[in-house]
Design a protein that fits this description.
This protein is α+β, with helices and mostly antiparallel strands. It has 3 helices and 3 strands; from the N terminus they run ββαβαα. It has one domain. Strands 2-1-3 form a 3-stranded antiparallel beta sheet. α2 crosses α3. The longest helix is centred in the middle third of the chain and has 12 residues. The radius of gyration is 13 Å and the shape is globular.
Length: 104
């Protein structure tokens, strides 16, 4: 699994940015959905590869963003669904692709 540094435009606002360090492609996908699309995650650069397991990364994402969000994006844990390990495997999100209401 590769890790990346990036800048997040919170709620899509370029005047409200947060730098994120060494995050996975799965976390980038979550942040894209939560903050409004592909344009909300900018300045993405690959930092390094890690041998972090899918189970460990999924547990981290569920702890931070909630199991419903992670399950909606990547499928249920019981199904053995794998998380994306490369940035290139994350398809751009559209409003139609968002599997839950993030405005509540």
């Amino acid at each position: 699994m590769n890790l990346y540094n990036c800048t997040v435009n919170l709620a899509g606002n370029v005047l409200n940015q947060v730098a994120r360090r060494e995050i996975s492609p799965a976390e980038i996908a979550v942040l894209r959905v939560l903050h409004g699309g592909d344009d909300t995650i900018i300045n993405i650069t690959k930092v390094r590869a890690t041998k972090r397991s899918h189970a460990v990364e999924r547990q981290k994402l569920e702890a931070v963003y909630g199991a419903p969000v992670v399950t909606a994006l990547f499928g249920p844990r019981a199904a053995g669904s794998k998380l994306p390990t490369e940035l290139e495997t994350i398809a751009p999100e559209t409003d139609e692709d968002v599997p839950f209401d993030v405005t509540e």
